[in-house]
Amino acid sequence: KAGVTQTPRYLIKTRGQQVTLSCSPISGHRSVSWYQQTPGQGLQFLFEYFSETQRNKGNFPGRFSGRQFSNSRSEMNVSTLELGDSALYLCASSLALGQNYGYTFGSGTRLTVV
Amino acid sequence: TQLLEQSPQFLSIQEGENLTVYCNSSSVFSSLQWYRQEPGEGPVLLVTVVTGGEVKKLKRLTFQFGDARKDSSLHITAAQPGDTGLYLCAGVWGNDMRFGAGTRLTVKP
Lengths: 114, 109
Hints:
The complex is a heterodimer.
Chain A: E1 5-7, E2 10-13, E3 19-24, E4 31-38, E5 42-50, E6 53-57, E7 64-68, E8 74-78, E9 87-94, E10 104-105, E11 109-113
Parallel strand pairs in A: 2-11
Antiparallel strand pairs in A: 1-3, 3-8, 4-5, 4-9, 5-6, 7-8, 9-10, 9-11
Chain B: E1 5-7, E2 10-14, E3 19-24, E4 31-37, E5 44-49, E6 55-58, E7 61-65, E8 71-76, E9 85-93, E10 96-99, E11 103-108
Parallel strand pairs in B: 2-11
Antiparallel strand pairs in B: 1-3, 3-8, 4-5, 4-9, 6-7, 7-8, 9-10, 9-11
């Protein structure tokens, strides 16, 4: 079966712009989580969605937002981009809410802010 | 401050050697997961351990969960170049999950 699909794979944006990243989970998976990965901070949790509702949120500013659609696909948006937002953004899907099930990650979107 | 401490941070060994990497916390986990990440890709789940003292084997990889469920180790026997990657542990506390900074392993042929 198809894995977790993230688009686009690479993105270059200018400071102050906004960006939308997309994630299609594995068919049947209803939970989608987003992580930011940087060399200095490692994997940092952004938020988790289940049944179109945000169930858990990490310690990121309000410029970071997301949503989930009825088909479980998810998008995350970053507004007013800063240089420090340059990172690999990873989406992970799971059968149900709760991390005990383990995640299946996508290949990520590499965002570069210049 | 990392809730999960992984050690060593970097490890470079020759093919055929054995190695152990560690994941430690002062908190008790409800479960712990190990992932491997290769350059340009997302992490791939290797194993989930739930019970204190649990040992799981995946071919040449042996995972152990500490009796007190605060620590875990990953042992690789006869490492191969294909084992090269970033090994991440992730601890779960209720609905909260945090990743360690990872151990970057390089296995030289």
